[in-house]
Write the structure tokens for this entry.
Amino acid sequence: MKYEFTIIVPVYNEEDNLKRVEQELSNYINIAAKKTKVLFVNDGSKDNSQQLIEEICANNHDFSYISFEQNRGLSAAIAAGFKNVDTELVGYIDSDLQTAPEDFNLLLKEIGEFDLVTGVRESRKDSFVKNMSSTIANGIRRSFTNDGMDDTGCPLKVIKTEYAKNIPMFNGLHRFLPAMILLQNGKIKQIPVQHFPRIAGVAKYGLWNRLVGPLIDCFAYLWMKKKYLNYKIAKKG
């Protein structure tokens, strides 16, 4: 059966989480609403992540990987994933597994009518500072983009690949994926999903890149919106 859905898993120094990622995503593949495969994107990890990824992919035919020479950030990892996807649908989930792979089925249920469906983390299990900074950053982003999304930082999304491949990615733009789908005249929707505390590993974002960084990125988005070329080819000969 042909694969229909690729889950991108960006990885940066997550050696303590990867075996759990293997187990959870293997379990999800067995119940997935679409024929699913997994693509790890190793963002220049300096720990043992690459060796573990290679072992996981050797033992699971539904898993594959690409690996960066150096750390380039989450947006670059997602962009590389989008570029290497060959299925009709693409999604991504963080390797900390603070969201549940089985919730992809909730998003896949809605994707037919929409071009991007994103999760909204209910009852977030993060610190007060992290939750508050994310709330402020989301409010700032909404005022710039008018995308109507409450939680673009939620690391659980499903996108139609034809739209994902047309997103011009730059550093920080992963926060603006719904807005970039709207620029293509696409339709977006948000769905409540589960959220869990981080069990292992270390969070990669501090106050700067949760709050100040996104504010700067908003101006980059406004520039991109003004310059974005949106077209669809009607016919080829």
In short: DSSP finds eight helices and seven strands in the chain.
